Prior knowledge:
The N and C termini lie far apart (57 Å). This protein is an alpha+beta fold. 29% of the residues lie in helices and 28% in strands. The strands form four sheets. A six-stranded antiparallel sheet has the order 2-1-11-10-7-8, covered by helices on one side. A five-stranded mixed sheet has the order 4-3-5-6-9, with no helix packed on it. It contains six helices and 18 strands. Residues 1-25 have low confidence and may be disordered. Helix 3 (184-191) crosses helix 4 (193-208). The longest helix has 18 residues, at 153-170. The chain is elongated and about 65 Å long.
Amino acid sequence: MIDFRQKTFTNTTALPVPSKGKKQVRKRGCLLKIHPMDLNSGLLPIGEEPFLIGREEYCSLTITEDSVSRSHAEIRLDEEGKQYLLIDLCSTNGTYLNDERFKDQYQQLQAGDTIRVGSHVYKFMTSDQIEAQYHEAAYSMMTKDSLTNVWNKRYFLDMLNREVRRSTRSKFPLTLLMLDMDHFKKVNDQHGHLIGDEVLREFALRLSHQLREEDLLARFGGEEFTITLIETDQKQAEFVARRCLKAISSAPFQTTAGKISCTVSIGGATYIGLPPDTSTERLIQSADASLYQTKKAGRNQILIREMGKCS
Length: 311
């Protein structure tokens, strides 16, 4: 059973509250922290009293981060007592609902919505089938990168190992691309990590729009991503890589700090009929070696080697 923690709630705003003259419908919701990932934090219950989010200790949810205002946001029921509302309390850095900073006074919450305050992201769940929603979210947290919502390194390695074995049996080509954002450290240094997170999310989104459903995009770590192209030879992989290169560099990234231009370096390795002793580590090392060469050559470039034919 899920343990719902009890907290003291504080009413701090005069925005819509359930009317005392109307029949109240008992409502229950909760938040699950998904970034930074922390499965041990459990569920944070939201009842019929206002749920305050901010930096101060009196808040229902306290986030000790400079980018979070003292009283940052609030979740409360509407006048009918049926619908939860997310309210931004004139915070300095804004409150984000499903990665969009809303400008209206409040927004209605639906099960599965994500709420971002500072660098912390929470998934909102309702009283209907909380157990099922929790387990679905927990599985996603184990396989998806919580910041960019693409596959994480753990899932990528499991999948790549499976595809290496399949390629060995079938003799179909298999290509692995490794992508690294150029000079990403400068973005964090000049604009801060919150803006860097915005860039990473947009970076992953642009890449995903260039891929087939069966292609696998994963965050390998930091600003480095991988794309696994199943049954894809070197020529086809170069076409995909050029699309990705153009998608990143063709237009500046729109962030709350303004427009930021980015480029990407892409290295890859293609194997056709992998030898039986081939490991996922060997494939990763081959793609990483190509990526290193693109950086050495000046970045914002592509190099994909067909292993066994190119030195």
